[in-house]
Amino acid sequence: MSAPTIVLIHGAFADSASFGPVTRQLLDAGYTVRVPAVPNRSLLGDSAYIRSVVEQIDGPVLLVGHSYGGAVITVAGAADNVVGLVYLAGYALAEGESLGQLQGGFPDSDLAENLVYTTFPIQDAEPGTDVSVKIDAFPQVFAAGIDPAEAEVLAVSQRPLAALAFSETAPVAAWKTKPAWGIVSSSDHTINPDVERFGYTRAGLRKVIEIDAPHLVMRSHPSEVVAFITDAIAELS
């Protein structure tokens, strides 16, 4: 099998730039990389969009999902040319399960009490609700371990997640038919690390490692994340 295109999928309260250090290292190593922007409007809509991106790539694809991006790759990964999944501090949903249901089983995190809810217009429909992290809490809750000046920038440029994404259920779980790997961020204050451990164990991932890292593991430990991704590719080869 030819080397897969690595498609990096960001999560909530972040954007494609969150993968910047990992993207740079993968490109420098000669890999083909794509980092599409996730709309963060709904699990089903986001997954359909990412699947459409993936299906227009020639050849095999390795999907890498961070946080909410893990839920997205769980669904979008059903595309025929996806050959593997890598979860980074992510939600490995089961078929018929929502983000809220998986998160609700392990409520001990700092995120819930530091969320902000705002409305946005939807044409010919009731307004939607966006969810973001309080700017003053963002550095500790979401970007702990990141340079404070950088965390401040990330806090004011975060990409909200529509509340709808928390309640929609996954129509498919790609990890049932595709090999998958996962990293647990053991110092995560956004997602209870037990959410990650539970989802990965249930999915029977080929390999799981734990890194003493905050939620943004790909920014705090980019070299370790790159090594994990490339090791997964080596297994596929």
TrEMBL record:
Matching SUPFAM superfamilies: alpha/beta-Hydrolases
Coiled coil residues, start to end: none
Domain of life where this protein originates: Bacteria
A molecular-function term among this protein's GO annotations: hydrolase activity
Ranges where the AB hydrolase-1 domain occurs: 6-227
InterPro entries listed in its UniProt record: AB_hydrolase_1, AB_hydrolase_fold, Sec-Metab_Biosynth_Hydrolase
Protein's UniProt keywords contain Hydrolase: yes
Keywords, alphabetical: Hydrolase
Xref: PANTHER family: AB HYDROLASE-1 DOMAIN-CONTAINING PROTEIN-RELATED (PTHR37017), ESTERASE_LIPASE_THIOESTERASE DOMAIN-CONTAINING PROTEIN (PTHR37017:SF11)
Name used for this protein in its record: Alpha/beta hydrolase
Taxon lineage: Bacteria, Bacillati, Actinomycetota, Actinomycetes, Micrococcales
